[in-house]
Amino acid sequence: MVLGRLMHYVGDALLISTVLAGIKRQTGLRPDIDRISEPTTKGLLEKYLGFGEFVFDSSVAAATASSLFQKDMLDRLQGPGASR
Questions:
Q1: How far is CA 82 from the centre of its chain?
Q2: 2-27 and 39-65 helices cross at what angle (nearest 10)?
């Protein structure tokens, strides 16, 4: 019971860090960890966000290598926010 709840929290934390990595890659926005003065907390947060970037990059690489995904070239040519 406790192990299941722990795994659920770990999964949630992983999803949050991966979403933050995607936001960083798409918009350039990132959490302002420079505001944290405590070095141990800052280091842990940097590792946490770095792991999210690793998961995001691995997911993109797997999708790129898969035949189940394709790039939508029309969207790339029109740019973000363009309607069809």
A1: 24
A2: 80
